[in-house]
Amino acid sequence: MIRSQVLICGGTGCTSSGSGALVEEFTSQIDAKGLTEEIKVVKTGCFGLCALGPVVIVYPDGTFYSKVKKEDVEEIVSEHLLKGRVVERLAYTDVGYEVDEEQLKNISLNDTTFYKAQKRVALRNCGVINPESIDEYIAMDGYAALGKVLTEMTPEDVIKVVKDSGLRGRGGGGFPTGMKWEFTSKNQADQKYVVCNADEGDPGAFMDRSVLEGDPHCIIEAMAICGYATGATEGYIYVRAEYPIAVARLKKAIADAREYGLLGKNIFDSGFDFDLHVRLGAGAFVCGEETALMTSIEGNRGEPRPRPPYPAVKGLFGKPTTENNVETFANIPQIIFKGAEFFNSMGTERSKGTKVFALGGKIKNTGLVEIPMGTTLRDIIEVIGGGVPNGKKFKAAQTGGPSGGCIPASLMDTEIDYDNLTAIGCMMGSGGLIVMDEDNCMVDIAKFFLNFTVDESCGKCSPCRIGTRRMLEMLDKITEGKATLEDLDELEKLAYYIKENSLCGLGQTAPNPVLATLRFFKDEYIAHVVDKKCPAGVCKALLSYKIDPDKCKGCTLCARKCPVGAISGSVKEPHVIDTSKCIKCGVCMDNCKFGAISKG
Amino acid sequence: MKSLAELAAIREKMQNKVNLREGSGEIRVVVGMATCGIAAGARPVLNAFVEGVNEAGLADKVTVTQTGCIGVCQFEPIVEIFEADKDKVTYAHMDPEKAKKVIEQHLKGGKPVAEYAITNV
């Protein structure tokens, strides 16, 4: 009889920090202590707190062990599993208040500040079940929603529940999901399709990846439900080839579902047939755009096509198609199983439910969080995210990656939902949330994202192909201190032109990072253009390193470390940097023990 | 999969394998499993509770877990039962047979077994 379970994160973050070895080590240590009959080791999907990986959770106590190394396993087995003593040095106990020794023993992960403010719907099984076991998914009420749909509901009923739930597309656009399904259902055709967009391309985003890795069956179930509601019998999941764990688990999940008859012919004896295929994307960002994605599935070069006709009329292989993002689908089984009210009781007036964010950048708890819509940015960053590390000041957060914008510190109390973000010139995006502190230069950030879109523009339409490159050249001029104020006006004009005239979402949103930074951080642009300074000290062309002769002790360390021999001076005499040779690498400043070197 | 009944059967079969992960039940049964407890025979007691609770269908309500040395090693194996809004009940000198009675009478029936308890019940 199993009395305790050891859950080890097998998501991408923890796998790369070594969780694979932990599974073996736990299994062999448990075996060595003769506990195999009593304790079960389970490899799960992502728990969310990737910054502290590899993560191990021991149930029933819910004790959360972070940064577990192979050498720590024996101690956890012999202390905690055998004798019931929590290994305090590894236990994560950040609950936001002081705890005494007695309480320390009973801290479950649900008590920690990272988890307490979260509400897990799309991620409900991630880090809870073994994603490779269809039985565990079924034990968590998996496929019950599909069963309910096929035996008790008409397609119209299903669409009504999804509409009533208020679910909107989680890929970034925020289009009401129920309406999308309804459009496809009303179009008559001999064949219709369901497509899952798992081509997650934003730098810093890994929400969809974690859902596919941690709970692949919920996507399969949701797509089958969508197929029933819209009249489709075939589905495609388009996932990037760079997600090997997700692809492998998805394929296993599809095979298991087929074996159980949850995919295939006559599911639940209802006469409904549905099957799924996985298509691997080669990593082009534009393939995350729905029409380009379908072109790619058809075997052609991934390029968008003009809309209308919309996919609901003429989509994949020219047939009516419903395309939704991974996280959108992940909400569907819960909405059907628990009812529309369960979902629409969370969130704000026009944005219902929860949203998953991938926290990254200058933040303590890098990882994956799911919060009810309407949570403020401040709560996400300061409470759940643990704030900005190293005592630095929060400057801005980028949402929506290269298609989104930044939210400055002054708007930290904005309640996150689709409409509030649009109102301040940002967008929800797929859920990447990159935190920046005072050391980040906003012009440089805008340049980084534009660089990305220039690379990823497919080249089909000229506003995007040529326009973004011209914008990037202007930004280069600014960061090199060669721009004038007229260039700033020109940059803004071009940005709006590209937004209005590009063919697809990639081009239409590419100028957003520039427009948002121009709006909230115009002073930084002006500092680059007028004063020829980079206030954050990032843009190399505008920096120079100086040695303060009063503080320099003449230790010669900087001169020895300088890779280009730009520093000269004799022992015990103040040194000097030759700015014509200096490559501004900052090695001298990092090494100086007397704080004599400054940049500006 | 041809029927909801088949799906329900798999769910039933698997439920006790995953319900450990759903957090604490209303009642916590804590077995002292330090060296003193193990030496006095705490392991069979722990296993008896885990099995008995599952057999009695109490797994949703009762969480069986372990702890270190409680401090009165002469009374091991010790089992403590915590329930919200009630005083803790401590049982001493437990064995698998006594565990069965505690499950039947205390966990199921709500009446602590006075003869095994060292706290006032």
Task: Report the CATH C-level class of the largest domain in chain A.
Answer: Alpha Beta
Return the domain count of chain B: 1
Instruction: Identify the CATH homologous superfamily of the largest domain in chain A.
Output: NADH-ubiquinone oxidoreductase 51kDa subunit
Query: Largest beta sheet of chain B: what is the strand line-up?
Result: 2-1-3-4
Low-confidence stretches of chain B: none
- Fraction of residues in helix of chain A: 25-40%
**Largest beta sheet of chain A: what is the strand line-up?**
7-8-6-5-9
Query: Largest interface, and how many residues on either side?
Result: A-B, 37 and 34 residues
Second CATH tier, the architecture of the largest domain in chain A: 3-Layer(aba) Sandwich
> What is the residue-mean pLDDT of chain A, rounded to a whole number?
93
The largest β sheet of chain B comes out as: 4 strands, mixed
* CATH architecture assignment name of chain B: 3-Layer(aba) Sandwich
Helical segment count of chain B: 4
How much strand of chain A? 15-25%
* Structural class by SSE content of chain A: alpha/beta
Q: What's the shape of chain B? A: elongated
